[in-house]
Amino acid sequence: MNRQLVIALVCIISMIFFTKESQAAATNELKKGMTGKAVMQLQIKLKEQRYYTGNPTEYFGSDVETALKKYQTTKKLKVTGVLNDQTSMMLFGKSVAAFIKQYPNSKTTTASYDPYSKKEQVTTIAKQYTGVPYKFGGTTTKGFDCSGYVGYVYNKVGTELPRTAASMYTASSIVKKPVPGDLVFFKNTYKKGISHVGIFMGDNNFISATSSKGVAVVSLSNSYWKGKFAGSGSVIN
Q1: Confidence (pTM)
Q2: pLDDT of 104-113, one tens digit each?
Q3: Local structure of residue 52 (DSSP, 8 states)
């Protein structure tokens, strides 16, 4: 066997070993920005123990990080907001790698930045709260106002928004043709100026929290909303 062939074989073996080591290291923790079925199971477990209050999704957002910190504080673990082996052993009785291995079809990876993928997550999460009642000043699943609802949904994908519809409008990049997940704004509803915000869902529909229906999907062609429409904007670029 010539020297060049030996060197090539050594390089290939080293690359295989390094890849396996990297993959193993990647499963040693679950943290903010990661996605997968294991992330959803983590949320379900935290919800069972009343540390997490949202509807479980496959996205590890700021709300999951906060719930984990609460759990770690209560259990007197190192507070990181990350599911490491120490926390996983306490919560599931097994290491993170062993926990993830239970979900072979799960792609537990750090989400690469793709604005369209993130906006798709927004619409998926938004629909989960259909029927939640309206509550002026509400920011939880017990009751939402329009901006409280939009802020809650966006927080699920790691995007923090200002508190009011008007401030969200100011913070948005105006778009002429919204895509699902973008924000839609309305003016002169209960007060002058930008006073209502929703999430565009596609097919000329949007979802928002209203005093008459709670969280519901409505057409932009609706006689009331059509006359109040003020434009659309994106906060995920």
Answers
A1: 0.60
A2: 655 555 544 4
A3: -
